[in-house]
Amino acid sequence: MTGDEPEAGPAAGASFFRFCPSCGAAGPTFVDNKFWHCRACGFDFFRNAAAAAGVIIHGPEGIVLLERSLEPRSGKLAFPGGFVDLGERAEEAALRECREEIGWAPPEIEYLGSYPNLYDYGGVGYYTCDIFYFYRAPGGSALPPLAPRDGEARRVRLLPPRAIQAADLAFPSTAWALGAYAATLG
Ligand SMILES: [Zn+2]
């Protein structure tokens, strides 16, 4: 996994805090691309990757993809998934996002891998660690009817792995996960 990491966005490494969030002094410095430090009060605030979790759901008609209706990457395809809440397990987040986004979660999921991503929202580049799981319907058993639930997606599409165009995918991590999953199919 080298050479295809997502590029840093406009907010990468930028000190977008103009004032210390603790004491209000101007100009906290951004140190080693890791944390903000306030010289006035000594406050440190770390910028860590946010965890996100998603699931590749593979039924007999294909892989479940959500056509995004919101920026970033409106109109592009992504797997059900989203940010891990505070105190939440990645597995729980993956299944919760499935329930929220398509109204159904698979009965079990297996770990696939993780990949860094950069998610631009509201002018801030959120670095994420996208954690992927997969579910392959056993014996070609049908998936229940799936429809978008929470307004983040325009529609649910079911596409065979080979019919999915890389240019239609929302994020580099989506493409990486699809490639990693396809490799398990043999
Ligand atoms: Zn301060």
Low-confidence segments, given as residue ranges, are 1-11
Number of helices: 2
What integer value in Å does the Rg equal?
Answer: 19 Å
For the sheet with most strands, the description reads: 7 strands, mixed
Note the overall shape.
Answer: elongated
pLDDT averaged residue by residue: 89
User: What pattern of helices and strands is seen along the backbone?
Assistant: EEEEEEEHEEEH
What ions, cofactors and ligands are bound? zinc ion
Structural class: alpha+beta
Strand content: 25-35%
Helix content: 10-25%
Structure description:
With 186 residues, this protein is an alpha+beta fold. Helices cover 15% and strands 34% of the residues. It has helices spanning 90-102, 172-185; strands at residues 29-31, 35-37, 44-46, 50-59, 62-68, 77-78, 81-83, 110-121, 124-136, 153-159. Strands 4, 5, 6, 7, 8, 9 and 10 form a 7-stranded mixed beta sheet that branches. It has a 3-stranded antiparallel beta sheet with strand order 1-2-3, with no helix packed on it. The longest helix has 14 residues, at 172-185. It is elongated, with a radius of gyration of 19 Å. The protein starts with 28 loop residues before the first strand and ends with a helix. The protein binds zinc ion. Zinc ion (ZN) binds at residues 20, 22-23, 25, 38, 40-41, 43.
